[in-house]
Design brief:
The strands form four sheets. This protein has a six-stranded parallel sheet with strand order 5-6-4-1-7-8. Strands 11-10-9-15-16-17 form a six-stranded parallel sheet, sandwiched between helices. Strands 13-12-14 form a three-stranded antiparallel sheet. With about 375 residues, it is α/β, with parallel strands linked by helices. It is built from 13 helices and 17 strands. The chain folds into two domains: about 150 residues, Rossmann fold; about 190 residues, 3-Layer(aba) Sandwich (Rossmann fold), CATH 3.40.50.1260.
């Protein structure tokens, strides 16, 4: 993969695909992590003498038409504050740094329309992709334009590919994978790959219940779809797969619901499992503490609800304290380490949800392949 080390940008206009798909509330950015993650690449390009940076990003899913609430105008203002230089907004804006309006206002973006790719290419002399979060999409601004200009990966995209690709190809042993979230079918490829590569795969969150049901356990009102049970059944029998031995239950999915700890995994009727229990958390913590590599994707329970946060917090603390190489990916897992103030103690916190999962599976990412 070509990187900034392979690209001459001095005196040239650089089209930079960034991932500024940040959360907004009432027009204000509530988390600017993705903007901050792009700063090293933008600063390096300026230091190397780039004449102009034209930044391209999407925000939300406006479905090919202008939608005011998905405008990148608030992002331009925040980027100006963080970068410390004026940031123009819109294709007609002047200045050394310009953020274009939401590329998904263009109906041809998600269709990888060649005409849109050519229009983008005409704006610049070289192209840099630093948007790992969209690298698994073959869109006009992530894949199409990369074939029309001298192109390379930015530092964020480079770090992501090296960090995740590195642990999957040559991990320090033992390699412990921690997988949570909601649906087994969404992560069947990831689970299969981890069972091939890792030494232990620790399962938590709602994902545990299809496995438990496939073993014959009662799951009560816990989230558990039939198709997930069948998918889980196909993975049972592998000694690497570790499931919860106790749970924290709630009557409803609510912070003020009635709760109880269950020493076991047979969930009574009228209850739902919303977190791993303390014995499971301790066991998972021990496995993580002794690992040479840890990859965590998906929370252990409904950590956004205080009564059901302990399991995820325990895993987050274990990952942060691990002496091995630690990688955290997936929006909810990243949100958890940020919420618990542990993000700066993890070796690599991924900015890409779907992209990181596909990279773990070993799939080719169109946005990366175009840079080879």
């Amino acid at each position: 993969m070509r990187t900034l080390d392979d690209l001459d940008v001095a005196g040239r206009r650089v089209l930079v695909r960034v991932d500024f798909n940040v959360p907004l509330k009432d027009g204000e950015i509530t988390d600017d992590t993705r903007i901050r993650s792009a700063l090293p690449t933008l600063r390096e390009l300026r230091e190397k003498g780039a004449a102009k940076l034209l930044l391209v990003s999407h925000l939300g899913r406006p479905k090919g038409q202008p939608v005011p609430e998905y405008s990148l105008a608030p992002v331009a203002r925040r980027l100006e504050e963080l970068l410390g230089v004026p940031v123009g907004f819109g294709e007609d804006a002047d200045g050394e740094v310009v953020l274009l309006e939401n590329i998904r206002y263009e109906p041809g973006e998600t269709k990888n329309d060649p005409d849109l790719a050519r229009r983008l290419a005409a704006l610049a002399d070289v192209y840099v992709n630093d948007a790992f979060g969209t690298a698994h999409r073959a869109h006009a601004s992530t894949e199409g334009v990369a074939h029309l200009l001298p192109s390379a990966a930015g530092r964020l995209l480079q770090r992501e590919v090296e960090a995740i690709g590195g642990i999957m190809q040559d991990p320090k042993r033992p390699f412990v994978a921690v997988v949570g979230g909601a649906k087994v079918t969404d992560k069947i490829g990831v689970l299969t790959r981890f069972l091939e590569v890792a030494d232990a795969v620790l399962i938590g969150g709602a994902m545990a219940f299809p496995f438990l049901k496939a073993q014959g356990h009662a799951v009560g009102a816990s989230l558990c779809a039939d198709e997930d049970v069948e998918a889980a059944r196909g993975l049972l029998g592998d000694d690497k797969l570790k499931l919860p031995v106790d749970l924290v239950l709630g009557r409803e999915f609510s912070a003020d619901t009635e709760t109880r700890e269950l020493d076991g995994v047979d969930v009574p009727d009228g209850w739902m499992g919303l977190d791993i229990g303390p014995r499971t958390a301790a066991s998972y913590g021990e496995a993580i503490a002794g690992a040479g590599t840890v990859c965590w994707n998906g929370p252990m329970g409904a950590f956004e609800l205080a009564p059901f946060a302990a399991g995820t917090k325990a895993v987050a603390e274990a990952v942060a304290a691990s002496p091995g190489t630690t990688v955290v990916g997936g929006g909810d897992s990243v949100a958890a380490v940020v919420q618990f103030g542990l993000a700066d103690r993890v070796d690599h916190v991924s900015t890409g949800g779907g992209a990181s999962l596909e990279l773990i599976e070993g799939k080719a990412l169109p946005g990366v392949e175009a840079l080879k």
